[in-house]
Amino acid sequence: MDSRGVRRESTMRDVAALAKVSIKTVSRVINDLPGAGPEVVERVRAAALSLGYRPNLTASSLRRSDRRSATIGVLLEDLSNPFDAALLRAIEDRARQNDVLVLAGSSEDDPDLQRELVTSLATRRVDGMVVMAVGGHQDGLQQERERGTPMVLVDRPPMFDGTDSVTTTNRDSSREAVLHLASLGHRRISFLGDRKTLWTSQERYTGYLEGLAHAGLTLREELVRTDLHGPGAAEAAAATLFDLDEPPTALFTAQNLVTVGAMRALRARELHRRVALIGFDDFPLADMLEPGVTVLRQDVPALGRKAAELVFDRIRGDKSAPTHAVVPATLVHRGSGEIPSH
Amino acid sequence: MDSRGVRRESTMRDVAALAKVSIKTVSRVINDLPGAGPEVVERVRAAALSLGYRPNLTASSLRRSDRRSATIGVLLEDLSNPFDAALLRAIEDRARQNDVLVLAGSSEDDPDLQRELVTSLATRRVDGMVVMAVGGHQDGLQQERERGTPMVLVDRPPMFDGTDSVTTTNRDSSREAVLHLASLGHRRISFLGDRKTLWTSQERYTGYLEGLAHAGLTLREELVRTDLHGPGAAEAAAATLFDLDEPPTALFTAQNLVTVGAMRALRARELHRRVALIGFDDFPLADMLEPGVTVLRQDVPALGRKAAELVFDRIRGDKSAPTHAVVPATLVHRGSGEIPSH
DNA sequence: GTGGGTTACGTCAACGTTGACGTAGGAGGA
DNA sequence: TCCTCCTACGTCAACGTTGACGTAACCCAC
Fold first, then answer.
1. pLDDT in tens, B177-215
2. In this structure, are B293 and B305 located in the same domain?
3. I want to staple B91 with a disulfide (CB 3.0 to 4.6 A). Which of A227, B80, B282, B304 is the partner?
4. B103–A285: do the CB atoms touch at under 8 Å?
């Protein structure tokens, strides 16, 4: 205990004194390095145990030549969003296999906050970062990358060169969804999307356009609503669609919270069994609603796993060209996307 | 760059050399300490900027007398569970206000994994921990606590003395739910619970018993199913209830995944509009199902906030007696809990 | 002009650990 | 016997930073 009554953690010095060996020998024993006789190993182990000694990773990483902190940073948009949470969990699992811990943060899609968090992580000398980049503001990330920090972007690709990324088949899957709706006779298919600054939103919108084109449908601007942040905005926007003279017979919602908002609007007007709906991103209980919600399901565990694997490869010194992994999403038919045009 | 082509982070030494001052003066400028003239401050700032200098928090915390790493550990059961994710997010928000980052981990309700993670955190010298303790195995936590690590338990109270905790009104709210069902005429109210080793499960079961007693109902053992881990087990268990000669007319499900499983069973038998259901823990979209699911909603942000505040108080040296905060849950009426007995 | 205080620096050692290197003692071969 | 090599230790310095303390220069009052 020191003067403030705080117990001091014991150090190699303490263990060395008790075992009557040098600090360096303790270091050898603790790290299972050769150069310590069996008898000494025993004595040191016993001393360490009796003092409750635990190595100080910060001191060790400061001194060691590899400088590893055995910690990576994971910066997502909102850790409480089910998508982000599942991603974090997948990354954490892979990290654990490498004896690495995860420093997690929510950027809230705020460029300043993202920059601040990146600095915070750098200050703690994390070995690498997995980042869901804030839309349109990647200069802070690029600077960090240029300093040599291993970095992988998830969900959204880098706007600069030399960085790995893992994304979903946003465009292709969106096109597939729209074609599916068109094949059921829908001609007025609405698009509801998240903030336009997000790359995923743009891609999904492009896929929507491609789908319309492939199906021989023309784009009706009045059926497109973008920049919807959160379920509330989505609900309000969806509601206005049904005041049109020619309202949509099908909706394609390009993000999970937007899907939820649109569903609320449909229900409020008792349209949920008449208007078709396909959403991007699966969510819990989508199958238990009536009708079940047809979605494009991203393979979130695969996204997280791949992202983690890429950072760890880089941390291990992989110098090959940047990888841009794309994980396919699947169209899950549950009913809402199978409502025919009326 | 060193021999491996890895750029070395610049240090105070580099900045000092460039600004032609001593390292100590750089330290003073970086930390906004007095004792540096305005001209020197400018020179040092410019040098630091041009070198892209960023302080090394690990070195700094090693040397400083307070030893703070500006990092706390948060150990939950499963970061991808919506409840855990919301909790993490709430803790993270409070941590950020203290310029503290969060090391997050999932214990998966495995005592060995929990112990390993606690050691991992300790090795990184976190300033404190917020832990959702694994059911029935708290000795590792107790040891850590006894070493002086600030620790707060969330969701489940400590089984040892001297540690703060934040929990919900598990028992009282469960009783309230059962009484609510009884007031609608239900006499055969079933209990479906998570693993019995969990304190929350036990409390909720006790609340159930109290509710029955207050309502003048006798416990029917055949209506009680416990140790249901995950929606699958819950669904199977719920299904068997309806093969009884006298099946329940109402269900009280004591955990969110159990609620989901039970709902699936009800739907499979088309009973979801006939059998009443109240679940512990709210979940997204509970209001959009038909009927809406009546739940006991925990105030997750308040739980997380309070837990974070308690650790930070302890980290700041608060030596007062342990606090056991209890955050009230609310009964949210949505329909499923208002189905009368038939 | 001298004493006392303040300001703006600098020097040194230490936090806990590990890499580089030194050394005593024994084994083994010529 | 002497030389070499190996094993099992030890010593020393350094990682990047900060606390303790030293000191030169200057200000102000008496």
1. 999 999 999 999 999 999 998 999 999 999 999 999 999
2. no
3. B304
4. no
Closest nucleotide (C1' vs CA) to B31 is D18
Among chain B residues, CA nearest to A51? B147
pLDDT digits (tens, 9 = 90+) for B228-241: 998 999 999 999 99
Domain extent for A208: 170-299+331-338
Give A-chain residues touching B81 at CB under 8 angstroms: 85
**Series of mean pLDDT values for 10-residue runs along chain A (342 residues):** 61 97 97 94 97 97 94 97 96 98 96 96 97 88 94 95 96 98 98 94 97 97 95 95 96 95 95 97 90 97 98 95 97 97 82
Handedness of CA B124, B129, B131, B133 (dihedral sign): positive
User: Could you tell me which of A253, A198, A258 has the C-alpha nearest to residue A234?
Assistant: A258
Smallest CA-to-CA distance from B222 within B259, B194, B191, B265 is with B191
- Judged by phi (left if over 0) then psi (alpha if -120 to 50, else beta), residue A52 lies in left
Contact list, A71 vs chain B (CB under 8 Å): 103, 124
Interface test with A, best of B102, B124, B289 (most A CBs within 10 A): B124
A5 Cβ within 7 A of any nucleic strand D atom:
no
Residue of A nearest to B10 (CA): A147
Omega of the bond leading into B291 within 30 degrees of 0 (cis): yes
Closest amino acid to nucleotide D13 (CA–C1'):
A63
Alpha helix (H) residue ranges in B31-169: 38-51, 57-63, 82-97, 111-123, 139-146
Note the CA–C1' distance, B65 to C4, in angstroms.
Answer: 32
Residue A288 CA to residue B290 CA, distance in Å, equals 9
Q: Which residues in B lie closer than 8 A to residue A52 (C-beta atoms)?
A: 147
In a domain, A119, yes or no: yes
Verify that B94 and B136 share a domain, yes or no. yes
Residue reference for tokens 């145990």: A49
B304 found inside a domain: yes
According to DSSP, the β-strands at A189-192 and A71-76 are unpaired
Å from A225 to nearest chain B CA?
A: 23
